[in-house]
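Researcher: Re-running this chain for the archive, since the previous output was lost when a drive failed. Same request as before.
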Amino acid sequence: VVLTSVDRDDLPDGGAAHVAETVHSLRRHQPELLVEALVGDFGGRTRDVDVVLGAAPDVFAHNIEVVRRLTPAIRDQRCDYDRSLAVLRHAKARAPERFVKSSIMVGIGERDDEVDQTLEDLRAAGVDVVTLGQYLRPSPKHAAVARYVPPERFDAWAALGLELGFSHVASGPLVRSSYHAAEAFISARLRPAHRGP
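Model: Regenerated structure tokens:
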């Protein structure tokens, strides 16, 4: 099961306790479930990240979304590329036995070399699993699609990701952040040599 949540800036802990209790509740009812918690950055507050990690989800996920240059224009103004990396790095350091996951959207104005750099940054932060997918404009109020990335470019990023040491890379036009989450978990589990940063 994949738990996702919007940023809860109205709550002092950003909703961390609610996510943790949901993980605990799922485990009480069905202990064998694989649980992925896809959360925001909690404003960079590591104590709130630790609350989620304390519930022991199998996968801790936080999406970096776009390359560094596009972060101020595309993501919410409260988001920060380096803070996202810091949250991911902290999660891996705090719970090295857990898988840490992130996701990148492409086709929104980035250059290929910027995606390469983002993959390198994520891997350096200790991220184990990464997904890359085509950005699709959700409404006229959102940024326009700058390009439709060809499948062979996605294949090249998948190859680069594995070369960098990710345990699993899902990369393709229709891939989304929780794409085949169970398969990604199993694939990553089968590549234990790549668990470290």
